[in-house]
TrEMBL record:
Compartments in which it is found: Cell membrane
One Gene Ontology cellular component: plasma membrane
Short name of any one Pfam family annotated for the protein: OAD_gamma
Entry annotated with the keyword Transmembrane: yes
Signal peptide interval: none
Organism: Selenomonas montiformis
Entry GO MF terms: sodium ion transmembrane transporter activity
Chief location: membrane
Protein name, UniProt field: Glutaconyl-CoA decarboxylase subunit delta
A single GO BP: sodium ion export across plasma membrane
Keyword terms, alphabetized: Cell membrane, Membrane, Transmembrane, Transmembrane helix
Length: 113
């Protein structure tokens, strides 16, 4: 067996860190190359500069109560259509009951996550 080149731990640490970072840089370059040559990436088409047309939400989103203004219905329908929902998927718009702090101690906690 041969003798170790060095027994200084700082030089060994520098050599190991250099090797690790060179491997990380090489992996980063490979990932960038894969993203550049990705055949599954959809091709970007030139679209015309026509403004987006917002569909008329009044027949699509009937208001369940008379207290909801048509402007609020239009805003809610436009927001839902931006998420990809069609007019046939919006059945009703109902406001939530707001009890304020009245029942906050009685309602069980539900984790949103």
């Amino acid at each position: 067996m041969s003798q170790p080149v060095t027994s200084n731990p700082f030089i060994i640490m520098l050599i190991n860190m250099t090797v690790v970072f060179l491997v990380l840089i090489a992996l980063g370059l490979v990932i960038k190359l894969i993203h550049y040559l990705d055949p599954t990436k959809p091709k970007v088409k030139q679209e015309s500069a026509a403004p987006a047309v917002v569909p008329d939400p009044s027949p699509a989103a009937p208001a369940a109560e008379e207290g909801i203004s048509p402007e609020v219905v239009a805003v809610i329908a436009a927001a839902l259509s931006s998420y990809g929902y069609g007019p046939e998927q919006i059945h009703a718009i109902r406001p939530l009951s707001r009890d304020g702090w009245k029942n906050s101690g009685r309602v069980p906690f539900s984790n949103p996550f």
